[in-house]
Amino acid sequence: MESFLLDRGYRIIMHLTASEMEKKYLSLRDGFSVGKVLPLFCFVHAEHQP
């Protein structure tokens, strides 16, 4: 993912895998998970470098 974006003039600010998304967005305070994210999904926050 990083090389794909770098080749197009972007830099990655944040990259979350499916398991990281589950921990960040689908976990309750007691650690119980309320859902699953399929491993083919990820979040990437990137910005274009001038």
Give descriptors for this structure:
50 residues, alpha+beta, two-stranded antiparallel sheet, 2 helices, 2 strands, 26% strand, elongated
Describe the structure.
- The longest helix is centred in the middle third of the chain and has 8 residues, at 18-25.
- This protein is elongated.
- Helices cover 28% and strands 26% of the residues.
- It has a two-stranded antiparallel ribbon.
- The mean pLDDT is 93.
- It has 50 residues and is α+β, with helices and mostly antiparallel strands.
- The chain has 2 helices and 2 strands.
- It has one domain.
Helix/strand layout:
Blueprint: H1 2-7, E1 10-16, H2 18-25, E2 43-48
Antiparallel strand pairs: 1-2
Number of helices: 2
> Shape, please?
elongated
Gap between N and C termini, in Å?
Answer: 20 Å
Helix percentage range: 25-40%
Radius of gyration: 14 Å
Major sheet size, sense and barrel closure: 2 strands, antiparallel
N-to-C series of helices and strands: HEHE
Query: How would you write the strand order of the largest sheet?
Result: 1-2
Average pLDDT across residues? 93
Strand content: 25-35%
Which regions are unreliable across 5 or more consecutive residues at pLDDT < 50?
Answer: none
Structural class: alpha+beta
Number of DSSP-assigned strands: 2
Number of domains: 1
Structure summary:
It is built from two helices and two strands; from the N terminus they run αβαβ.
